[in-house]
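Is this the right way to post structure tokens for a design question? Let me know if I should format differently. Anyway, here goes:
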């Protein structure tokens, strides 16, 4: 299944993304679930959603404004320096996962605007695979970790580089700089995330490309490691890291500016598309 969150006629909702349009689960299951996170929190939620896969569509995609796939996660935990090429670019030598956090209110959805702050000219792209947790996970083993995943999505983890130092928080939490979408693809369609490949395109030109099998710290290992120190809940998001090829380390550096289009594509999930606009004072 592919699940999406959106606004329709100003009303937040969620639904199934199908070849024939969107099936509005908010309308059909709103008495049970107020949003996608609450659907994932119910052990029967995905089964209940799947019952509507063959239903006629309720909404045309053109009638919605996409929200972040999970608009209100309790946690967004981000992993840095998790591909060999990226580690080489930044001279990273630590063997432990590099972790930082992103705040939910810094996110935006598919086909929406990413805002470049006027204070900086170093808005950089980072395409990433996002893991969405499907059930409570605390101190779990790596070999069990994939059973705690609801599904996967694309993420554009935008970085304000001149505000990103040895700590990442200030460079990663500007409004509308983390794009999340277009959909949550459930694990029945992606039993093994290592089979996925990821690419990032700036104005149609490929800037990043790698295979998820090349993650230094794998999806199961990341879930296990993170769940050692914090309890993960349904709807929580883990960003797995960005391949090499970021703009900061190119010669000359390449950053995103007003009028640019940035896209992140992952096999079996789709292509997340966003538009860069300058912040208006």
């Amino acid at each position: 299944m592919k699940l999406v969150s959106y606004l329709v006629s100003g009303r937040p909702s969620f639904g199934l993304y199908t070849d024939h349009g969107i099936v509005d689960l908010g309308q059909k299951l709103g008495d049970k679930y107020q949003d996608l996170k609450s659907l994932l929190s119910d052990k029967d939620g995905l089964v209940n959603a799947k019952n509507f896969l063959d239903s006629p569509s309720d909404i045309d995609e053109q009638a919605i404004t996409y929200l972040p796939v999970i608009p209100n996660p309790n946690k967004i935990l981000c992993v840095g320096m998790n591909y060999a090429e990226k580690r080489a670019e930044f001279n990273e030598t630590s063997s432990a996962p590099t972790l930082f956090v992103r705040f939910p209110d810094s996110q935006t959805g598919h086909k929406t605007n990413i805002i470049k702050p006027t204070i900086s000219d170093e808005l950089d792209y980072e395409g990433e695979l996002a893991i969405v947790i499907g059930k409570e996970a605390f101190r779990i083993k790596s070999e069990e970790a994939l059973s705690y995943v609801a599904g996967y999505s694309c993420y554009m983890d935008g970085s304000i580089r001149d505000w990103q130092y040895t700590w990442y928080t200030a460079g990663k939490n500007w409004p509308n700089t983390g794009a999340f979408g277009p959909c949550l693809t459930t694990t029945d369609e992606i039993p093994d995330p290592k089979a996925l490949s990821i690419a990032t395109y700036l104005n149609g030109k490929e800037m990043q490309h790698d295979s998820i099998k090349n993650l230094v710290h794998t999806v199961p290992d990341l879930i296990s490691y993170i769940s050692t120190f914090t309890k993960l809940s349904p709807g929580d998001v883990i960003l797995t890291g960005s391949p090499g090829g970021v703009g900061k380390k190119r010669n000359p550096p390449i950053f995103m500016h007003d009028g640019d289009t940035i896209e992140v594509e992952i096999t079996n999930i789709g292509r997340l598309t966003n538009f860069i606009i300058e912040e208006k004072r």
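Format looks fine. Someone answered above. Worth noting: The radius of gyration is 18 Å. The chain has a mean pLDDT of 95.
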